[in-house]
Amino acid sequence: MENELSKAERTRQFIVETTSGIFNKKGYAGTSLSDLTEATGLTKGSIYGNFKNKEEVAVAAFEYNSARVRKLIAAQIEKAPTYYEKLMVYAKVYHSFNSASFPDGGCPILNTAVDADDTNPLLKNKAAQVVLRWKKNIEELISAGVVAGEFKTGIDTEKIALSMIALIEGGIMIAKVTGKPVYLDEVLKTVNALVTEFKV
Length: 200
Hints:
Blueprint: H1 2-30, H2 33-40, H3 44-50, H4 54-79, H5 83-95, H6 108-116, H7 121-147, H8 157-178, H9 181-197
């Protein structure tokens, strides 16, 4: 029985990993069942034997993609020696949203939020949860930087966190839609200026 469960889990993971880039590029509505069967080499019955429906696969794919980005950021934050550098990790990581280390298709938060905004409440909620977690993480880093004497006191951490997220995600959107990565470079300079402003 244990072997069967581990095999089922391996199959689920294979489906998620194999289709994660498709969902991230095409979105939920744009991804067809034939996209999933073609990518995985599995039958419709095999996919729906492991997931209730396409939405469940899409949610698992989003969670997989967003976890990849989160791990990438966490690893670099851990290495950064100052709170300023820890905050700037977000700009550095998202600057490379087209690289091989990022999920295929770019930023899963932006892609899913735009794709699911008016069409899929479950995916929209998942994207919202990731944004709110991101906001909390930034606020905690700023607060820790204040305690460490690295940042000024009296900072509106929520305002800074939301501004950073809006700049980064907006910069990615502008770079993608115009095909000009240099626009993201300019936006990320503003993120740097924003964080530098409250350094002691």
